[in-house]
Amino acid sequence: MGQISACIFDLDGVVVDTAKYHYQAWKRLANELGFDFTLDDNERLKGVSRMDSLNILLEIGNQKLDEEQKLAYAEKKNICYLEFVNKMTPEEILPGTIKLFTELKEAGIKIALGSASKNAITILEKINIVNWFDIIIDGTKTQKAKPDPQVFLLGAKGLNATPQECIVFEDAEAGIEAALKAGMRCVGIGSSDNLGNAHMVVSGLNEVTLKKLEFL
Length: 216
Ligand code: B16
Ligand code: MG
Prior knowledge:
This protein is α/β, with parallel strands linked by helices. The chain is built from ten helices and six strands; from the N terminus they run βαααααβαβαβαβαβα. It has a six-stranded parallel beta sheet. Helix 3 (50-60) packs across helix 4. It is globular, with a radius of gyration of 17 Å. The termini are close together. The mean pLDDT is 97. Magnesium ion binds next to loops.
């Protein structure tokens, strides 16, 4: 228990479900390279940066590419992914998000984004929630990917909050690890099977209230 100054939200898997679009785009690339990519395989990419995702994909398909080829394929995947993103609408905001944001703002608590995605701003604009955020830390602002705590520490610093005053919302194991390394409280979004290290696990933001957060 302690004061809450800021809540830091991951994007994919917390505010929107872009994992399904990442999956379609990676699957198309895998098929082009001559192998299959399953939904189960896609679980390994959640919260992981684009280049790390490509490396996992190539490992699954047992393929070796040089750096130049990797950059070209990562770019190709992203173009395909953006085709899906560009069709996104505010209806894709996951249930409970706006209600929780409203409650936090009314209580004077700051809202931050802490995402690995380099497309975060485009997504936030498509779903029309960019103005809710007091600070946006995404894959264009970090050098170290989760489970490194950099993304969350930058968010706290930018809001003049100490890590102890921040609560992170994350759907990926690497993100929970990053939050704990940052010295922050964290809420896992998903299942306690893989997010058991979080201080609390819920199935979505619709299950979160400020009252519950005050007990963390
Ligand atoms: P991009 P998050 C992550 O978003 C996704 O979960 C992960 O699958 C993706 O590879 C990563 O962003 C990078 O995305 O290719 O758009 O830069 O969960 O950190 O919001
Ligand atoms: Mg995520």
